Amino acid sequence: MFEYHGWITVRENAVDDDDEVRLRHVVDELRLRIAQMASPYLLDLRWMNGEPFIHLGGHSNHRSSPDVVGLFEHVAKVASGSYGLLHIRDDEDPSHENEVRVLRLARGTVTQHTEALLSPCIPTLEDPFTG
Predict the structure, then answer these.
(1) Which domains does the chain possess?
(2) Which secondary structure element, helix H or strand E, spans residue 14, and what is its range?
């Protein structure tokens, strides 16, 4: 099972004076990339109050498309002022199958962390399998 929930505030750089023309170009490129991902789940880029945001969420049997981690890494490269979080639960990841992981996007870098509020998944979220 692969479950994810996240958001990104898209900013061209970390200074609060984005060049509007360049930012719109970045957003147009991101919109095209998102359209090509063809996700059956939540994957949305929209402007709110003059700023672009990406929202995403999904739940599939296996980690496959869309490549949401790749999207976070791409945004880090093309819009280094962007920031956001992506919570992932992947029970097929042998080193983290009992954890919710958080990817943090900040200042052009994506880092991974264990979500302490939701981990370990058993017993925090679910009872142990007694089969």
Answers:
(1) 2-124 (3.30.70)
(2) none
Model confidence, pTM: 0.91
Q: How far apart are CA 128 and CA 112, in angstroms?
A: 26
pLDDT in tens, 22-73: 999 999 999 999 999 888 899 999 999 999 999 999 998 887 767 999 999 9
Residues with Cβ within 8 Å of residue 14, at least 6 apart in sequence: 80, 81, 107
Token pair of 104 as six digits: 């943090």
Q: For residue 70, give every residue at least 6 positions away whose Cβ sits within 8 Å of its Cβ, in sequence order, or none.
A: none
Is the Cβ–Cβ distance between 4 and 65 less than 8 Å? no
The CA distance from 95 to 9, in Å, is 29
> For the residues of 24-92, what is the DSSP string, one character each?
HHHHHHHHHHHHHH--SSEEEEEEETTEEEEEEEEEESSS-SS-HHHHHHHHHHH-TT-EEEEEEEETT
Helix (H) or strand (E) holding 117: none
**Residue linked to tokens 């980690």:** 63
